[in-house]
Amino acid sequence: MPPLELPIVEWSQMAPELILIVGALALLMAGTFRRERSMVTGACIFTIATAVAALVASAGLWHDVAGRRGGARLAVADALVIDGFGIFFTVVICCAVILGALLAHGYLRQERLEAPTFFVLVLLSASGGVLMAKANDLIVVFLGLEILSIALYVLAGYHQRREQSREAAIKYFVLGSFSSAFFLYGVALTYGATGSTNLGAISEFLRSQTVTQGVLLGGFGMLLVGLGFKVAAVPFHMWTPDVYQGSPTPVTGFMAAAAKAAGFAALLRIFFSAFGNQRLDWQPIVWALAVLSLLVGSVLAVVQTDVKRMLAYSSISHAGYVLIGLQAASTRGIAGSLFYLLAYTFLILGSFGIVGLVARKGDNLTGLDAYRGLARSRPGLAFAFTVFLLAQAGVPFTSGFLAKFYVISAAVESHSYAIAVIAMLAAVVAAFFYLRLIVVMYMADDQEMVGIGPTVGGPIPTSATAAVDRGGVGTAVAAAVATKVEIPFAAGLAIGLCAVFTVVAGLFPQPFLDFARHAAVLLL
Amino acid sequence: MSETLPILTLLVVLPAVGAAVVACMPRDNERLIRIVGMSFAVIVALLSIVMLADFKAGQGDFQFLSGHVWVRDFGISWKLGVDGISLFLVVLSGILFPIAIVGPKVHHDIKGYVAWMLLLEAGCIGVFLSLDLFLFFLFWELVLVPMYFLIGGWGYDRRIYATLKFFLYTMVGSALMLVGILAVVFLHRQATGTLTFDVVILAKEQSLASSTARWLFMAFAASFAIKVPIFPVHTWLPDAHTEAPTGGSVILAGIMLKLGTYGFLRFGLYLFPQAAVDLAPVFLTLGTIGIIYGAVVATMQKDLKRLVAYSSVAHLGFIVLGVFGLSQQGMEGGVLQMVNHGISTGALFLLVGMIYERRHTRQIAELGGIQRVAPVFAGVFMLVMLSSIGLPGLNGFVGEFLVLIGTFVTHRWWAVAATTGVILAALYLLWAYQRVFHGRAEGANATFPEMTMRERAIMAPLVVLIVFLGVYPRPVLDRIAPAVHDLVSHVEEHSDYRQPAVAVGEPR
Q1: Residues A381-396: pLDDT tens digits?
Q2: What angle do CA B361, B362, B366 make, to 5 degrees?
Q3: What is the mean pLDDT of chain B?
Q4: pLDDT tens figures, B53-84
Q5: What is the tens place of the pLDDT at every residue in A225-241?
Q6: Is residue B337 within 8 Å of B425, Cβ to Cβ?
Q7: Peptide bond into B475 cis (omega under 30)
Q8: pLDDT attached to residue A288
Q9: Around Cβ B386, how many Cβ atoms within 10 Å?
Q10: In chain B, what residues touch A408 (CB-CB under 8 Å)?
Q11: Which residues pair with B71 in a beta bridge?
């Protein structure tokens, strides 16, 4: 047996991931030595500093990659690829970390969950996400996927005293492991068909092939299932509403942003870059996934009375839009998907940030009723939420409009008119429930409500005790709604940043579009 | 002038700035908010009049052009320009918005009302001035948001139903149009190699295959038809108009309905001449149905505001007829009628609003005999109503007459059918007038207050315009005619349609 040959590790090329991991470990150690309550502020600041350091490191890498012609390069025995695409996702995920940490700060204090473990998990899952985005090998993708997911399973159940939170964690864990198994099986089949797990080698191999084997098609399918689960595309979305609703709200925001970004990073890279030659085989499947996600996401969101669930369904339909970019299988399509994910990250974190604040102590007031008259008691918060909702509906002069415009233009460019029309009609359906929320905040007196039942912050239907408790909750909720929403400084800052980004990227989109386009061009 | 002062950009940006300024002001000082909002609106109105004065009559092409690259990746630019077709619509917006802002009484949250109104003004003027398809679509969509809030926040009882219906109807149309816009742009790139959203380039180069062009025209037309609204998709209009606050109704009827007919002229006919010619009979038929149907339904209304709303369906039918009649005179009449309808229906909604303020009802049956107690009010109402009917000597007549002449030459039987609409208009408006103003004033009607000075001041500019345009429409038509002429020749050049010699009319 020949001795195991260790690859050369280019540490500097892995700086962002390393910074995140080292930061997480340092914080973990610090947490074991000090147990004071005041840790939470320090941990939050430390997390943000770590993410900023990772951003700075990424900026350096971007400079290297974009500076020279075709500067994308391989590292660590071809297991990682350093290209614009990977750096783009590093930036997106680090932004999600910063915003998520800011949102979590007030929440953790309010819920008396002040151990720094929360931030450790956030940093770890972010490092997994970054690894997925930069992986050039299916095994490394899997590695990143697991690091990301395991941290997120724990985060979903982080509020141990809340039954819904525990329930969400179990659901997410069971279904998530199942999907990981699918992914792994897909890796195995692809290996069987192509003889390698390295994306470059796979791409090379497929370029010389004219016939697609059944085994390879099986591999495509399995990989799509595994990643489709992570990005919550229909029909692999079943977990999304329950997990989003049950998780602590800042976790939901972080999960919706980071997990989706990482999942799409892997999906786009594997399918567009490695399987690009075989696009005629997978394009119809992605087409179907996109259409299903768009329609199911927006139609089911309409009937929700819980805002968290509604946003969960709307995030499913957002996944549909990103898939449109992949379906187009062009550089413009990929750039559109990237821009969409960037815009979406800020939108969804801002939205869940507000939902978390309105849910107040106990994180329970997530029904539409809790938003009644928010414009009067908290005009700033209501305005910011309006910006996010309008942007998600795709109203002009917001980042959301340009994002939709970008992916749909890619679809039209590749002559997929049907999906473009379906996407726009789904946007109309989606507009209905975004507007309904705005109606509740601004216009609803007690006299007239459209299709809004008397439900309050619904517990997950299956949790028996909560259902029994409902009668008692009703009056308590009414009293709690009457109290004014508190806005901690950090959360306010995060929401403000998201709102500013949404408007600025809508008005002066050129730098962000350039970033997305360069990143798409620099995809190896 | 255009080199030194980017007047069109100012026209679009100033109201938006005004909206932002008002939004940042403290909520309590209502007087100050009113003054600031009003001064922005008045400055915009003055600017639009400066533009009118500087506009060179006798030229058909775009003036005061301003263009800046905005999003390089897509060939999108901030390109604005004005020609005879859009000129008076911009001026009309400039005049109607200040009236809608201060005219009707607003009972709560004056700050929000003024801010949304100013933003709406930016959007409307933006639609009329955009020469870039992307920019046009942005403004087209932007217009929805303020109106949604205006109806939902300040409207009457069923406002939330009405505002959602309005938003969703219009958005369905926009959805199809966005795909259409993108298809035009990318197919154009396929044919010529340049990616541009510039309407003028796209229209001049005519790179689309005719079957494709027909599909794309329909995508655009769906959006415009909903906005106008043309007969089968008009059902949002009565609800939105009736439930909107008075100021909102004035703008909806006065400006926003014109966005659709303007879209047909600027984008439908200009980008897809052959498709428009092929499908003209469909739209002529729908327009004619709208004229008669709108009139018949208006006759049956018990609610005065709803009656005026349905009269809009009928009037817009005439404009559609003028546009798709594809004759010089008819189209001139159509453009003029857009302005006329804005003035007279805007004024009618203001008057109905005043009645509601006094009596808290709009039911025709509950009103009566107002002429005796408030003769000035009744006189103004009479004049505005006659203008809406199309009495010779008032503005409505000129537009309708031109539309009917023009259409008669090119599409005779549609014109004949549409003429009955004029008679029906007289029927429903005069009958309504008779029930509301004649007879004996009983109960609350006996103490119906006369028009106040403030209300007279608000109505005065509109009344002056109604008479002026009726007696001496020449300066207006002189500015509209060259642009219409260019458009008709553009259609003739790029399609198999030839205008009969009679329809050209006397050379101007």
Answers
A1: 998 999 999 999 888 8
A2: 70
A3: 87
A4: 888 887 878 888 888 888 777 888 888 888 88
A5: 999 998 999 899 889 99
A6: no
A7: no
A8: 93
A9: 22
A10: 178-179, 182
A11: B76
Residue A218 Cα distances to A215, A342, B409, angstroms = 5, 31, 67
Contact predicate A391/A347, CB 8 Å: yes
- Give CA–CA dist A78/B472, Å, rounded: 81
- Report the alpha-carbon distance of residue A373 to residue A388 in Å, rounded: 18
Token pair belonging to A317: 């339909």
**Does A420 contact B139 at a Cβ distance shorter than 8 Å?**
no
Q: Which of residues 19-78 of B touch A (CB under 8 A)?
A: 70-74
pLDDT digits (tens, 9 = 90+) for B488-500: 888 888 888 887 7
Token digits of residue B93 = 């917006």
Stretches where chain A sits below pLDDT 70 are 1, 35-38, 68-70, 211-212, 444-482, 522-524
CB contact under 8 A, B160 and A450: yes
d(CA A55, CA A53) in angstroms, rounded, equals: 5
Q: Which two tokens stand for residue A464?
A: 């028996």
Show the CA angle centred on residue A108, arms to residues A243 and A389, nearest 5°.
55
Pairing between strand A80-82 and B63-71? unpaired
Residue carrying the six token digits 């408007």? A503
Torsion from C-alpha of B491, B494, B498, B503, nearest 10 degrees: 20
A430-471 confidence digits (pLDDT tens): 888 888 888 888 776 543 443 333 333 333 343 333 333 444
**Shortest distance, CA B142 to any CA of chain A (angstroms):** 6
Cα A300 to Cα B25: distance, rounded to the nearest angstrom: 40
H or E element in which residue A398 lies: none
Residues 6+ apart with CB under 8 A from A99: A253, A254, A257, A345, A346, A349, A350, A353, A494, A497, A498
Question: Is A318 within 8 Å of A297 (Cβ atoms)?
Answer: yes
Q: Residue range B349-371: average pLDDT? A: 87
Tokens standing for B380? 């103004």
pTM, two decimals, is 0.86
Q: Do A439 and B152 touch (CB under 8 A)?
A: yes
Q: Determine the Cα–Cα distance for residues A201 and A77; give it in Å rounded to an integer.
A: 12
Residue with the two structure tokens 């003739």: B492
The ipTM, to two decimals, is 0.81
pLDDT tops 70 at residue B485: yes
The rounded distance, in Å, linking the Cα atoms of B123 and B141 is 8
Lowest average pLDDT, out of A193-202, B41-50, B99-108, goes to B99-108
Q: Which residues of chain A lie closer than 8 angstroms to B167, CB-CB?
A: 431, 435
Statement: residue B49 has pLDDT above 80: yes
For A408, phi and psi rounded to 5 degrees?
-70, -35
Among A421, A439, A514, whose Cβ lies nearest the Cβ of B160?
A439
For B160-185, the pLDDT digits (tens) are: 888 888 888 888 888 889 889 999 99
Cα–Cα distances (Å) from B273 to B224, B338, B488, B495, in that order, read 16, 21, 9, 6
Residue pointed to by tokens 């207050």 = B449
For residues B371 and A321, which has the higher predicted lDDT (pLDDT)?
Answer: A321
Handedness of CA B106, B112, B117, B118 (dihedral sign): positive
Distance CA B262, CA B128 (A): 8
All residues at 6 or more sequence positions from A107 whose CB lies less than 8 Å from its CB, including other chains:
A113, A248, A249, A250, A356, A363, A491
b/e sequence A442-460, b meaning 16+ C-beta within 10 Å: bbbeeeebeebeeebbbbb
- CA distance, residue A84 to nearest chain B CA (Å): 18
Dist CA B162 CA A439 (whole Å): 12
Q: What is the pLDDT of residue A35?
A: 66
Tell me how far apart the alpha carbons of residues A345 and A393 are, in angstroms, rounded to a whole number: 15
